């Protein structure tokens, strides 16, 4: 006969299992439910008497049966616990999330533990599944990651245009130059600025000038590929790094961009503002010491476009050594 103290301790243990704020489910080797605590009842809406002896997979058809069965069998065979974490598997069973603070997510993120339960004869005939609600942790992690991503974007983005700022744009160009030096892939740079931009500001005001710059940036985004890198170099000057593109291809891109801007009309406070851009093109088909040299070549070609009448594209050609 059991000692009364043992019965009292057993009663305490059952009270703890029922009141603890984690899910506790005991399964036999056929995955039938033997224990179903209050946490599971409240989250699933299934009462213990209705869950008892039911197959776990019939209660939760969303569970990957093959994967979970293998997990349970490993725990029973090896006699060691197994775990899942929300980063790898957001949840084992799909419970709705009712927490007010983390209410923006639809389901409960979960960590789980599978524990082997040894009988008095040391045989493992039951497995205890413990489900932890880690929605707060997961949501906070996601919010932190989103905040870091936003900070990263802000640190690399020009606030007026949404294009990359000069620092990030030059870093990308430096990497493109390094890849060219190592692998020899074609790389081109297009530099351009808005013609007579001071006149736009003086005639229509600086807010109108900002509107013009934003619309130019929009056109650039429409023209580039995902692999290209466009940025604001400063003021009304922009740069576009064209990957796997020689100067012939860059010339085609630059002409297409020039014509798109020429067709553009920016409406500001009832006035239509029209303008053009001048562009310079250079590539890495000739030896270069650094990415800064490529900028200098493209910038010089841009200078020639400005002084050649504007609204045109000039391609940098290497100087021919005197014979």
From TrEMBL:
Enzyme class: transferase
UniProt xrefs under Gene3D superfamilies: 3.30.70.270, PAS domain
Entry-linked InterPro entries: Diguanylate_Cyclase, GGDEF_dom, Nucleotide_cyclase, PAS, PAS-like_dom_sf, PAS_4, Rev_trsase/Diguanyl_cyclase
SMART domains, per the entry: GGDEF, PAS
UniProt keyword terms in alphabetical order: Kinase, Nucleotidyltransferase, Transferase
Record-linked PROSITE patterns: GGDEF
CDD domains: GGDEF
Residues annotated as domain GGDEF: 185-318
EC number: 2.7.7.65
Catalysed reaction, written as an equation: 2 GTP = 3',3'-c-di-GMP + 2 diphosphate
SUPFAM superfamilies reported in the protein's UniProt record: Nucleotide cyclase (SSF55073), PYP-like sensor domain (PAS domain) (SSF55785)
Any one Gene Ontology molecular-function term assigned to this protein's record: diguanylate cyclase activity
Name of the featured protein: diguanylate cyclase
